[in-house]
Amino acid sequence: MKNMFTFLVPAALLAATPIAKQAVSTKEAPSAAGPYSQAIKAGGFVFAAGQVARDPATNKVEGDVKAQTERVLKNLSAVLAAAGTSMDRAVKTTVFLKNIGDFQAMNEVYAKFFPGVPPARSTVQAVLPNDAALVEIDVIALQ
């Protein structure tokens, strides 16, 4: 009985240990503009931080909502690629629009990045952290 107890205690401690998390970073997308990671890999998922349409080469946010949606999704694609996954493994996105009236224009571009089974999605109107930003999107994907 003592031997069995000796085995169960380490197993219980191992089960209670939190799963490690790993930061993801790539120069193919804008660097984090604050104390956060571009993405985190944990528990079989990749949690990508929200991206606005900052061009990684110029660090500028430019264009209408269609151009910005394209840039945002390219940035997220680069982050997911750095994590070893892709947009077709996305399971959830959140879209933040400066103006909800831009929904249809954003949606036209968004659909091109998810031609198969699209992820679940929430879309809300929000105040964005960059005055020029019209859209921000975050994503959760399978590793």
Report on this structure.
- The protein is α+β, with helices and mostly antiparallel strands.
- 31% of the residues lie in helices and 25% in strands.
- It contains three helices and six strands.
- The protein has helices spanning 2-16, 65-82, 103-113, and strands spanning 22-24, 39-42, 45-51, 90-97, 120-125, 135-142.
- It has a six-stranded mixed β-sheet with strand order 1-2-3-6-4-5, covered by helices on one side.
- A hairpin with a 2-residue loop joins strand 2 (39-42) and strand 3 (45-51).
- Helix 2 packs parallel to helix 3 (103-113).
- The longest helix is centred in the middle third of the chain and has 18 residues, at 65-82.
- The radius of gyration is 19 Å and the shape is globular.
- Mean pLDDT is 91; it is low at 4-9.
Please outline what is shown here.
The protein is α+β, with helices and mostly antiparallel strands and 143 residues long. It contains 3 helices and 6 strands.
Radius of gyration: 19 Å
What percent of residues are in strands?
25-35%
Q: Report how far the terminal alpha carbons are from each other.
A: 41 Å
Q: Give me the side-by-side strand order of the main sheet.
A: 1-2-3-6-4-5
- Strand tally is 6
| Order of secondary-structure elements | HEEEHEHEE
The helical percent reads 25-40%
Strand-pairing-aware structural class: alpha+beta
Number of helical segments with 4 or more residues? 3
Overall pLDDT level = 91
pLDDT under 50 segments (min length 5)?
4-9
Q: Major sheet: size, sense and barrel closure?
A: 6 strands, mixed
Overall 3D form:
globular
